[in-house]
Design brief:
Layout lengths: L3 E5 L6 H12 L2 E4 H15 L6 H7 L5 E3 L8 E3 L2 E2 L7 H11 L2 H15 L4 E5 L2 H5 L5 E6 L2 H11 L5 H17 L12 E4 L5 H13 L1
Parallel strand pairs: 1-6, 1-7, 2-6, 7-8
Antiparallel strand pairs: 3-4, 4-5
Helix pairs in contact: 1-9, 2-4, 4-8, 7-8
This protein binds adenosine-5'-diphosphate and cytidine-5'-diphosphate.
Cytidine-5'-diphosphate binds next to helix 2, helix 4 and helix 8.
Length: 215
């Protein structure tokens, strides 16, 4: 089967930018699994599902059809045919996504969908549980980290109307939920290579991952 690069790590560690860069350099496809959890959350908000009620989320999570493209130059994401690429980055979705992603039934559905898309491989897949759950047999597993401050600074540079401090507090809250949930928490997979990107440029990190793939 084809090459699979699994890219995991906390928010703002550089998963999306690095994964897209690696996919482009090697002519591979790219899958953003976080976008699928965001799309599910967007749909739940649209429907008015009570996100404090895991049973309500579980009962409805089979309804939306979530389609994710795999082009590293323009990752498409649709829910029941509606383009949600912009809406899933809004603050309301970011604030709610970790609660939705903690529901086991949501994970079962989205992991199945992710495995369908991964298929025979030749893809870079980013998320929180790719090396541990979605693709434990991945060719290369990378665990990206960076200091909380560096991650907040990077995210703040991308978003208007926030501060580094507010960003850092919000990311800490989400990382805590993602690392402590009962089902498939964020953790480093067996065989993963940890890459601390705090003091590296994006280009340096991409080069490092490319060298791991070529080994
Ligand atoms: P994640 O997907 O883990 O949340 P992103 O790739 O969305 O992370 O965000 C990382 C941001 O930080 C991007 O804007 C990227 O250009 C910037 N950045 C700066 N330095 C680095 C680095 N060394 N590695 C990765 N990203 C970096
Ligand atoms: O870009 P950022 O790192 O901020 O977040 P993301 O990758 O878009 O993921 C959003 C949220 O989805 C995460 O905070 C997790 O709660 C959840 N997620 C997950 O549980 N498992 C994955 N494989 C990917 C994302």
């Amino acid at each position: 089967t084809g090459l699979v690069v699994a890219m995991d790590g906390p928010s703002g560690s550089g998963k999306s930018s690095v994964s897209r860069g690696v996919a482009r350099a090697l002519g591979l496809r790219y899958l953003d699994t976080g976008a699928m959890y965001r799309a599910m959350t967007w749909w739940m908000l649209q429907q008015g599902v009570d996100l404090a009620d895991p049973a309500a989320i579980a009962a409805r999570c089979g309804e939306p059809r979530i389609d994710s493209g795999t082009d590293p130059d323009g990752p498409a994401i649709h829910v029941d045919g509606v383009d949600v690429a912009g809406s899933i980055r809004e603050a309301d979705v970011t604030g709610a996504v970790s609660a939705v992603a903690a529901v086991p039934e949501v994970r079962t559905r989205l992991v199945a969908r992710q495995r369908e898309i991964i298929g025979a491989g030749d893809i870079v897949v980013e998320g929180r549980d790719i090396g541990t759950i979605v693709c434990p047999g991945a060719t290369v597993k990378v665990y990206l980290t960076a200091s909380a401050e560096a991650r907040a600074r990077r995210r703040n540079a991308e978003l208007a109307g926030s501060t580094v401090e507010a960003q850092q507090a919000d990311m800490a809250r989400r990382d805590n939920l993602d690392s402590t949930r009962k089902t498939d928490p964020l953790s480093m997979a067996d065989g993963a290579v940890e890459l601390d990107t705090t003091a590296l440029s994006l280009e340096e990190v991409i080069a490092e991952v490319l060298s791991l793939v070529k080994e």
